[in-house]
Design goal:
Elements (H helix, E strand, L loop, with lengths): L2 E5 L6 E6 L13 H9 L2 E2 L4 E5 L6 H11 L26 E5 L6 E6 L3 H11 L1 H5 L11 H12 L4 E6 L7 H17 L3 E5 L3 H4 L7
Parallel strand pairs: 4-8, 6-7, 7-8
Antiparallel strand pairs: 1-4, 2-3, 2-5
Length: about 210
């Protein structure tokens, strides 16, 4: 892992996480650089409303983000705490060894958004009920482009006082749509008291200059 970049002044929900008692540092996912680093350093305090996980391919940032989302009660393939579908069990065991330190407040909503499995989340959203589609502005995710539905979901499903995890959102986005995501992240973190953790390669996201009050 190259580094963790944290933006804004205060985290609201998860204050710190650490890796406890990993079984074998030479087995996956415990041999990943980010996992070794966090275990050796005692974990990571989340001091801000927005945290970027940044690193080269293979360092483990997406594996770590997935484990954080699962440890926080979300579905490994994506969705909210109420999504429990599984099209293919591929998540690592890392979440079982993560210890999360929570603040006094609890998030009002939670969502794990990942470009890799977004089609599966969209299909599950349609299957659950019409209310789920109504919560996305009344348009089925499959009736929009990948990038459009991604931004729609952030607009309609990411609410104030929420905890959100995003895995490489830029994979689904055009440069114009990426600007829309930056605008929404700014609103969520600076004005709606949310905590967001993003694994990304995107120079646009990393250079966004998002700050909290």
């Amino acid at each position: 892992m190259d580094h963790f970049r944290q933006v804004s002044e205060k985290s609201r929900f998860i204050r710190h996480f650490r890796i406890e008692n990993p079984p074998d540092s030479d087995s996956y996912p415990f041999r990943l650089p980010v996992v070794k680093h966090l275990y050796e350093t005692g974990g990571l305090p989340l001091r801000s409303g927005l945290t970027f996980l940044v690193g080269e391919n293979g360092t483990g940032k997406s594996t770590l983000l997935e484990a954080l989302a699962v440890a926080a009660g979300m579905n490994a393939e994506g969705g909210s705490q109420n999504y429990r579908f599984a099209t293919r069990s591929s998540e690592s065991s890392l979440s079982q060894y993560l210890s999360l330190v929570w603040g006094m407040e609890k998030p009002r909503s939670r969502f794990f958004l990942r470009a890799e499995t977004y089609y599966n989340v969209a299909t599950e959203t349609e299957r659950l009920s019409f209310d789920q589609i109504a919560a996305l502005g009344g348009v089925s995710p499959h009736a929009r482009s990948h990038g459009e539905s991604f931004v729609d979901l952030m607009q309609h499903r990411f609410h104030a006082d929420g905890l959100y995890f995003m895995d490489e959102p830029e994979a689904a986005l055009s440069p114009h749509a990426c600007l829309g995501v930056i605008a929404r992240l700014t609103e969520l973190v600076e004005h709606q008291r949310c905590q967001v953790v993003v694994a990304t390669h995107s120079p646009m996201l990393l250079a966004s200059g998002i700050h909290a009050d």
